[in-house]
Amino acid sequence: SQQGEEDPQALSIQEGENATMNCSYKTSINNLQWYRQNSGRGLVHLILIRSNEREKHSGRLRVTLDTSKKSSSLLITASRAADTASYFCATAGGAQKLVFGQGTRLTINP
Amino acid sequence: KAGVTQTPRYLIKTRGQQVTLSCSPISGHRSVSWYQQTPGQGLQFLFEYFSETQRNKGNFPGRFSGRQFSNSRSEMNVSTLELGDSALYLCASNPRSEKETQYFGPGTRLLVL
Q: Which of A33, B45, B48, B58 could be bridged to B33 by S-S, CB 3.0 to 4.6 A?
């Protein structure tokens, strides 16, 4: 079973708008990571946030982590057509493996 | 540095056959992990190798196996293929750990007929 659950499963917005995706998980973690996957291709690492961090930025990306609620959010500002992809959160905890959620499919409309 | 490479990129096999997939990690990366991605089950961890030793294993049957060579290149093998093995198989590498940032290859798409 998946550790992370992304919400929403699919999101469609207009170019230039902000996109927010959420991830909830069940057990304690060491870090939480976000990845992007363009249709049927390999995953690209976007950002890693550790359990003792609350917020992290990378370019147009902003990630927050609330360990008390066991949730994280990924915000993409000023979206572009090239941001169209699936986004996955992955958690690393006590289990010796990275566990991925089911992903959010983001579509940016021109 | 060159990225993670996987060969072949596409493969068609029939039920009962076996298949071997190959992965070359980023130079200097000693941890290599394999994942299976399907529309129904999503991304699932298969196993991780570090310095030629299997360090972690996911919940897959024994038909799925792997190995790692001294140059960190890794192969995974699936024997007695089933229709449900059709998937995108992804390889990822990291200098030390499968729990830190993973650098993924483009994947091998396997279709079992």
A: B48
